[in-house]
Design goal:
Layout: H1 2-5, H2 9-18, H3 24-37, H4 41-46, H5 49-56, H6 63-78, H7 87-90, H8 98-109, H9 118-128, H10 137-151, H11 156-170, H12 188-191, E1 208-217, E2 224-228, E3 239-240, E4 243-246, H13 248-257, E5 261-268, E6 272-281, E7 293-295, H14 307-316
Parallel strand pairs: 1-6
Antiparallel strand pairs: 1-4, 2-3, 2-7, 5-6
Length: 317
């Protein structure tokens, strides 16, 4: 990608604007075509807007092209045709927001600022083990402050490219490559086994998520404690293992302090999602007042359990 090897702020700017709403595979051809016709900001400013829009044809979101044209005029009128070298000044140009301003300032001029795109937000959320919704302004401001502090004494260009690449290639939304990630030793999500729970988006939190601890409690004979649920609750009349609903923060504290945590499962109900956190309780640690009855493992098929509890048995017994 030509824009990764250049320090030319114009080419970096054009690439960043094209890639805002466009896949790289599609945007690359448009980038070369656009740069060939408008090789610098002055050429772009001298062109008619209709021609600029024609070269943008097929990319969609045509306000991006109109903003490019307007900003090229601003550069000629307010900055003597030269790009300002700090992100705050770049923000004065039409169509340039916080991410693009920081990208140009860092990649072209080496300003000690960090870029924060969707990939980097995902990396930060997991590294920090932070459940703050990444699509809320408060969380993004906090992440920006944190990552800016990381980059202030190093080469921002290399750092930003590295963080973006980790997010796009390794720390992917699903099945992240944690075993080859250079941030593994410092990643709380990896250490706590919760990469699949992060990042969180407020827009997806309309569906309620409830957290439950489920306990595999054994006696000295290796038998499992089970109990029958009341008739007037969900899963009424079915058998289960001891469990309790908890708040997310309480679960995080309990999990970090426990050496018996096995993992988690998800069970989907009509009106909410149940996140099941499974713990194993050995005979010497179980509470004597535990209510229920102990059964041999081989007798589990005799009792009627919910699918969620059966999934626990399949994975952890």
């Amino acid at each position: 990608m030509a824009w990764r090897d250049t320090f030319d702020p114009y080419k970096i700017w054009i690439a960043e604007i094209i890639l805002q709403q466009t896949r790289i595979a599609q945007g690359e051809a448009y980038f070369y075509r656009f740069i060939e016709r408008f090789p610098d900001a002055k050429t772009l400013a001298d062109a008619e807007q209709d021609e600029v829009l024609k070269y943008w044809e097929g990319l969609g979101y045509y306000s991006r092209a109109r903003n490019l044209h307007a900003a090229s005029h601003q550069l000629q009128e307010n900055f003597e045709g030269k790009f300002p070298e700090d992100h705050q000044s770049l923000l004065s140009l039409k169509g340039i927001g916080p991410y693009t301003a920081r990208a140009i300032a860092s990649f072209a001029f080496g300003e000690k600022v960090a870029v924060l795109d969707g990939n980097v937000l995902r990396v930060l959320s997991r590294v920090l083990g932070d459940f703050s919704p990444i699509d809320q302004q408060k969380a993004r401001k906090n992440y920006q402050k944190i990552i800016d502090s990381w980059v202030k004494d190093i080469d921002s260009r290399s750092f930003n490219h590295g963080m973006m690449d980790i997010g796009s290639v390794i720390c992917t939304p699903t099945k992240p490559g944690c075993l080859i990630c250079p941030l593994q030793d410092n990643c709380k999500a990896y250490q706590e086994g919760i990469t699949h729970l992060l990042p969180v988006k407020a827009g997806k939190l309309k569906r309620k998520i409830r957290h439950f601890n489920f306990l595999l409690i054994y006696n000295e004979a290796g038998e499992l404690l089970v109990r029958q649920r009341p008739e007037n609750v969900f899963w009424g009349g079915l058998w289960e293992i001891p469990n309790e609903e908890i708040q997310l923060e309480e679960w995080m504290q309990k999990k970090r302090a426990s050496d018996t945590y096995l993992g988690e499962l998800k069970h989907v109900f009509t009106h909410f999602d149940m996140l099941i956190h499974v713990f194993k309780v050995s005979p010497e640690k179980r509470e004597e007042e535990a209510v229920g009855q102990f059964i041999p493992i081989e007798k589990i098929p005799i009792f009627a359990f919910s699918r969620a509890v059966l999934n626990i048995f399949d994975r952890y017994i």
